């Protein structure tokens, strides 16, 4: 029993992912000097900085990308706006819709973030054959999908439906 427990503990996917996540947080892409942002806000700002270079971003995009609720996204964005990293701009066709844009303050750190991301990605890939890394990415995407709320809701609906038919 002790051997089996130890094997499970050492190969527990959630534990390994948590440890990897912790290491990545320590190597945050954001400069450490005085941003005053939480790790989640840093991730969101990085997303905004790079996505706004190619398309318009709205709060619903952030909710979807980070799999967070509307209230959570709203709180994150409000603090980022208060700290001077983003601003919201009304859209002509629908005044209720607000495009999210980085401020000049945020744009100043874009290249530093990109450099850090490239360095971290290179370190992550070190000694791993390209094919294995691609498999790893695909497996992580599937794990994320497996744990997503939408998938859980669909499974729960399916389970209830089966119970009702008996």
Distinctive features:
166 residues; mainly alpha; two-stranded antiparallel sheet; 9 helices; disordered C terminus
Task: Please describe what this structure looks like.
The protein has 166 residues and is mostly helical. Helix content is 67%, strand content 9%. The protein folds into two domains: 2-109, Arc Repressor Mutant, subunit A, CATH 1.10.10; 127-166. It has helices spanning 2-10, 13-26, 39-51, 59-66, 70-82, 104-107, 110-125, 130-147, 149-165; strands spanning 86-91, 94-102. A hairpin with a 2-residue loop joins β1 (86-91) and β2 (94-102). α3 (39-51) packs across α5. The longest helix has 18 residues, at 130-147. The radius of gyration is 20 Å and the shape is globular. The relative contact order is 0.09. Residues 160-166 have low confidence and may be disordered.
Short description:
The chain has 166 residues and is mainly alpha-helical. The chain has helices spanning 2-10, 13-26, 39-51, 59-66, 70-82, 104-107, 110-125, 130-147, 149-165; strands at residues 86-91, 94-102. It folds into two domains: 2-109, Winged helix-like DNA-binding domain superfamily/Winged helix DNA-binding domain (Arc Repressor Mutant, subunit A), CATH 1.10.10; 127-166.
């Amino acid at each position: 029993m002790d051997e089996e427990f130890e094997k499970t503990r050492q190969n527990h996917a959630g534990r390994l992912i948590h440890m990897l996540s912790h290491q990545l947080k320590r190597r945050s892409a954001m400069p450490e000097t005085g941003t005053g942002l939480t790790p989640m806000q840093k991730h969101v700002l990085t997303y905004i900085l790079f996505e706004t270079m190619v398309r318009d971003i709205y709060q619903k995009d952030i909710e979807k990308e980070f799999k967070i609720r509307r209230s959570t996204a709203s709180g994150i964005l409000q603090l980022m706006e208060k700290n001077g990293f983003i601003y919201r701009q009304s859209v002509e066709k629908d005044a209720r819709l607000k495009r999210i844009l980085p401020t000049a303050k945020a744009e100043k750190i874009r290249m530093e973030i990109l450099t850090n991301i490239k360095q971290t990605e290179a370190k992550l890939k070190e000694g791993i054959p390209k094919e294995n890394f691609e498999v790893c990415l695909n497996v992580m995407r599937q794990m994320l999908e497996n744990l997503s709320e939408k998938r859980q809701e669909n499974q729960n609906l399916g389970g209830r439906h089966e119970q009702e038919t008996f």
